[in-house]
Amino acid sequence: MEEVKITTEYIKLDSFLKWCGAASLGSEAKFYVLEGLVKVNGEIATQRGKKLRIGDKVEFKDNIYKLI
Description:
Blueprint: E1 2-4, E2 11-12, H1 13-19, H2 26-34, E3 39-40, E4 43-44, E5 51-52, E6 57-60, E7 63-67
Parallel strand pairs: 1-7
Antiparallel strand pairs: 2-5, 3-4, 3-6, 6-7
Helix pairs in contact: 1-2
Organism: Clostridium algidicarnis DSM 15099
GO molecular function: RNA binding
Protein name: Ribosome-associated protein
């Protein structure tokens, strides 16, 4: 599990995928989310604007990212 520090109250899912390096472009992040390839706290997330907060876990391509 990789811990990723955020400095704001929340971050949107598509922005988080770019922030942690899972996606290099916003359009790429949008595609991953809309195709159902990303899980947030164990559930498939299809809203690219979903707000993530400290303590949430994002699963993508056999990686788990925990927001701290």
